[in-house]
Amino acid sequence: MLTADASSQAIQNARANDFNLSRMRNRAMIQRFHRAGCLVRVPSHTRFYYLHFIPSAYRYLRPWTKLFLDRLSREYHARFGQRLRVTSLVRTVALQRRLDRRNSNAAAATGPYRSSHLTGATLDISKRFMNPRGQRWMRRVLFRLKQNGYLYAVEEFEQPTFHVMVYPTYRQYVDGLAHHAPAPEDTD
Asked: Which residues are CB-neighbours of 156 under 8 A, at least 6 positions away?
């Protein structure tokens, strides 16, 4: 369902290129993108999710990815009474290089297999403390949205997370919900 394979990084990079998403080279670039409205600030905690060990300089996402996080975490909280634990948001090349040196599961910082976290469109949702029923629900929701072309998601096991790259088209999906059936997040 959400299994990573050798093509996972290439697929994410191709989609980033299709959507013309810049990769964050450094923290100054994150700040420029924030001032331009291309990245939005993510609070360290809300009623529905919290950021786990994410430094302040990296608490940013693309607006549509933040919309996804807000909707998904609100629905998860309503169903399971727990907040989502988010372990990664935007990254810079330097941060990705540091992760790559200490984590064999980390993607490269440059090249065709670089991490999609550099775009600000990707986040990691921890499975730690998530009960089995919540994990099954998360898999179903992410799989449906992946099938419909609104995101790319893989389930990681070395680092127990759901790695999710949200596409800009997710915003149109949400806009269409007001005129159509309930969202996949809203169904069992």
From this structure: 4, 105, 124, 162, 163
The token pair that represents 117 in the structure block: 């976290």
The model's pTM is: 0.92
Q: For residue range 171-185, what is the model confidence (pLDDT) as tens digits? A: 999 999 877 655 555
| 94's tokens | 């330097």
Q: Which residues of the chain have pLDDT under 50?
A: 186-188
- Please state, in angstroms and rounded to a whole number, the distance separating the CA atoms of residues 52 and 172: 29
Neighbouring residues of 157: CB distance < 8 A, sequence distance ≥ 6: none
- Rounded to 5 degrees, what are φ and ψ at 133? -65, -40
The rounded distance, in Å, linking the Cα atoms of 50 and 73 is: 10
Q: Under DSSP, is residue 40 helix (H, G, I), strand (E, B) or coil? A: strand
pLDDT score, position 98: 84
Give the count of alpha carbons within 13 A of 74, CB side only.
8
Which residue type sits at 145?
L
151-156 vs 49-51, strand pairing mode? unpaired
Residue owning tokens 């499975």: 127
